[in-house]
Amino acid sequence: MSIQRLLRIVLCLCVFAIVSGCESKNAPKSEALTPAEVFINDQSETTTPHGTIVRDSVRDGSDGSVEYRTSDGEPWRTHMNIHGDGAHSWAEPEPVEQTQ
Q: Which of 9, 32, 74, 75 sees the fewest Cβ atoms within 10 Å?
């Protein structure tokens, strides 16, 4: 193998590595997800002791909480906890008082 051919291969690999790892700085930033959207992504397939989460019932609460219903018809509320490393977890769900 000639040195020129070896240099071409190395150059191609470098260009490929640079291009595949680059992110366009002019690309629009994606919009941040609401707590309800994050909850749907994280929890919509979860089965709770009260049944499965009804995906279409998930709503953002006025206080930053997330409200949803389970398949037994009961309404629930939870909050997203954001940790220092950027990870998140969900608080223990609380039943929502139904107003008549």
A: 32
Enter the tokens of residue 17: 């590595």
Q: Determine the structural domain holding residue 85 and report its residue range.
A: 35-95
0.85 exceeded by pTM: no
**Per-residue pLDDT, 97:** 86
Which H or E element spans position 76? strand 75-78
Return the DSSP state at 55: G
Read off the DSSP letter of residue 46: P
Q: Is residue 16 part of a domain?
A: no
User: Is there a contact between 69 and 46 (Cβ–Cβ < 8 Å)?
Assistant: no
Q: Count CB atoms within 10 A of the CB of residue 39.
A: 25
Show the tokens assigned to 98: 């139904």
CA 16, chain centre distance (Å): 30
